[in-house]
Design brief:
Two copies of one chain form a homodimer. Chain A is α+β, with helices and mostly antiparallel strands and 245 residues long. Chain A contains seven helices and eleven strands. The structure holds a DNA duplex (30 and 30 nucleotides).
Chain lengths: 245, 245
Amino acid sequence: MTVPTLLSPDVRSDRCGDCPIRYRAVCSHCEADQLAILDQMKSYRSYSAGDTLIWAGEPVSKLGSIVKGCASLTRTMEDGRRQMVGLLFPSDFLGRPGREASPYDVIAATDVTLCQFERESFETFLGATPQIGNRLLEMTLDELDAAREWMLLLGRKTAREKIASFLVILARRDALLNKKFPGDHAKFDMIISRESLADYLGLTIETTSRQISALKNEGIIRLTGKRMVEVPDFDRLLRESGEDA
Amino acid sequence: MTVPTLLSPDVRSDRCGDCPIRYRAVCSHCEADQLAILDQMKSYRSYSAGDTLIWAGEPVSKLGSIVKGCASLTRTMEDGRRQMVGLLFPSDFLGRPGREASPYDVIAATDVTLCQFERESFETFLGATPQIGNRLLEMTLDELDAAREWMLLLGRKTAREKIASFLVILARRDALLNKKFPGDHAKFDMIISRESLADYLGLTIETTSRQISALKNEGIIRLTGKRMVEVPDFDRLLRESGEDA
DNA sequence: CGCCTGATTGACGCGGTTCAACCTCAGTGG
DNA sequence: CCACTGAGGTTGAACCGCGTCAATCAGGCG
């Protein structure tokens, strides 16, 4: 576990107004005066890739937003079988108001910067500030939709479709972040290891690796290094994913 | 589709104060004066088993709570593969505030009574009544946890464990509804057909049927009729489900 | 260089799907 | 009263996609 720093070197200023996730995070609907209160309550903390932010079942006293990086939510069975049940990106909220412990491990997939609050003070603020609650409801409903989308993938898609679906999501994300059109030649980092990917898709490492190789050999994707992926023809990838439109 | 009735014959009175889901539904945190407003806004509607309450992608103008019965949320792929992504029981909320269309079909698994609101008036009320929003947030977070639990089942459990896990949920529900201890000899209705069950568990009908037969032959469950299940030894069933505790 | 971790590839077997036959039961009508 | 029908469920046999086990490879680091 990394030694926590008060201010991540990658965050320019510690004022909420300058925050890169100001308009997407749980605080996005807040007015200036409410933001000032959050500004007082918050603190930053950094984690290195691989660090565990929250252990399943352990009580946690903090809640917060991902400012930078990517973290995974994972459930593990007694015999070691693992299933990733979510991926958190910048602006996503971490921890559940009204509950002490998380039912899953939260692990930094990359280096992560967190904007965190004490549970108690955040919950008090939440009770007094409908904007926070409304935004949190919006975000939770979106996560629920995403989880259900993933249930279709886990329950019904083939290994090949699972891999393609994951790449489609990353390609769309790449297009969004870089203001390109989805369909444009995408190039992005795969973010997570083969092992994590297997845990995300409900597959083994070997099947994951084989299907990626197959897509590469058929020219549907190109690999540079282990992690960088290029998608020359987005629609072709989309067809492999089993999705319409 | 059944002809809608203004008042279901099974609901004793149409006043919210007498409602069977008064203390669990989205309205549970409301005060008397807020309840009076909801009382004006709501209307009841009945559906028969098999009716489609909401078609995926179609705009819907209503939101509401399940008062009686059980409905399923299902996603379908172009080639016909289907995955159930949720089951709604009495007090569960139906429809998403802030979004016109549902990404999945909602189908009555049994006869269903719905307490429904016009989207617009409900959203207005939601904006003015933090209690509603807070309760909705709680319920959505619970659903998210349930969905993630299900992701573990879909991604990592064997067919046998999937069946056992489903029966564990029903047995617990039976114990809760009838104020027994989980662990007591449970007896309950399976609610859904083999086909729906297969769609829920990410299996085929045949595998579902085979695994149920296997559990029966080993004495872990007893079947009376096609749908009624008895569980003589809950812990034994629990062990088959792959869960701990 | 040797070591270690993560990824790839191959051979093989099993769990679950597929295809198909048959069974059960409730509803219908002669 | 019973034959007919159709939907839902069960059972069997063959196949195959993915998991398992194992060997090998590629790259980073002391």
